[in-house]
Design brief:
With 341 residues, the protein is an alpha+beta fold. It has helices spanning 10-52, 56-72, 77-96, 99-102, 224-234, 248-267, 284-290, 306-312, 324-330; strands at residues 117-120, 125-132, 150-156, 160-169, 178-185, 190-198, 216-222, 238-243, 332-333. It is globular.
């Protein structure tokens, strides 16, 4: 003990303890900083070729330089500082990137080429400009010969009677789904709403790409003969159509919110985002405007379970005492698939 404690000079001991503590904290902070820089660098290596659309040779050079800085940066501060500067510059570019800049003079894939617009009329009426009514051949792909049909059609909000919730699954997945809304009017017409990533030519639709500001947020307005038939009969995806117990007033509130968003997006585009603005999170404000007491949880992100969330909150119409599994089985729409879910 005398080795560490000098009774004649206790201040010196305290100084050593404080200095050792500060040094330990600095080492911990340095480790945290290097780890953060490493993780951001790995994200940057994945995101940069997508965001900047770099050619392969440029990406190879950048990757080699980044790896060299990573390898030499575990003990030296200069490579870490260089990496931090590179990361700060890329993050600043990514954060300030706007849809107007990203999609200026960009050609989109055929199925997403036309955006709808809303023209407000009097007496609760509105006109959908570019309502999609495509009809697809049996063996459909984007290059298949079919006619693009877009019409202008007038709807009356006061005639909205009910709303259906649609879940579509593919490739046997259960945790991810594409969700849509279908509104029914008293005159027999229907209006289907699908939120999708408006994808430019040359850009893939992989999940990571949908986090990198590569697609525009698109609300497609159509009729069931287009959107629902395309998913079930043509593509052979598993489709489930649920009736909701929204009152006509609640349905009108939801549709009013949607057409307002469509109108805003036509003049002020936004990015599609796999988390913040996807096929269900982009529709949440409309559903909440109709029924504010609805509660949300992680199933909003794992949207393959969103139908179960609506069932648990008594939004989906079902028989007294009926289980969700029974309701889902009854709600399956027969198409090409066998309804394996």
């Amino acid at each position: 003990m005398n080795k560490f404690w000098n009774r004649e000079n206790p201040g010196k001991f305290r100084h050593k303890v404080i200095a050792g503590t500060v040094k330990c904290l600095c080492n911990i902070l340095w480790f945290i900083l290097r780890t953060a820089v490493l993780l951001i660098a790995l994200w940057m290596l994945a995101a940069m070729p997508v965001v900047l659309r770099l050619p392969a040779w440029a990406m190879l050079i950048f990757t080699l330089c980044t790896l060299l800085l990573l390898i030499t940066g575990f003990k030296r501060k200069t490579p870490v500082a260089a990496l931090m500067i590179m990361e700060a510059a890329f993050i600043a570019y990514f954060v300030t990137l706007t849809p107007e800049e990203q999609f200026k003079n960009v050609e989109f894939r055929r199925v997403f080429a036309v955006k709808p617009e809303i023209r407000y009329l009097d007496d609760n009426r509105f006109e959908v400009i570019n309502l999609r009514q495509n009809r697809y051949p049996e063996n459909y792909d984007e290059d298949a010969p079919y006619e693009d049909i877009f019409v202008n059609e007038i709807f009356d909000l006061s005639q909205v009677e009910s709303m259906q919730f649609v879940s579509v699954y593919w490739d046997g997945m259960c945790y991810a789904a594409h969700n849509m809304l279908n509104f029914k009017f008293s005159d027999g017409r229907e209006l289907t709403v699908s939120v999708e990533p408006r994808t430019p030519l040359g850009v893939d639709r992989q999940p990571f790409t949908c986090l990198c500001k590569q697609q525009e947020l698109l609300f497609i307005l159509s009729d069931p003969g287009d959107l629902l038939d395309l998913r079930s009969r043509v593509r052979g995806e598993d489709m489930y159509v649920f009736d909701t117990n929204f009152t006509p007033e609640e349905c009108r509130a939801a549709l009013s919110s949607i057409i307002r968003k469509v109108h805003d997006l036509y003049h002020q585009p936004e990015f599609y985002d796999l988390i913040k603005a996807n096929c269900i999170t982009a529709l949440l404000p409309a559903l909440r405007s109709a029924r504010p007491e609805l509660q949300w949880d992680a199933r909003c992100l794992l949207n393959g379970f969103f139908d179960r969330l609506l069932f648990d909150q008594n939004v989906l119409c079902h028989r007294p005492g009926e289980s969700f599994e029974s309701l889902k089985s009854r709600s399956f729409i027969q198409g090409k698939s066998q309804g394996k879910l």
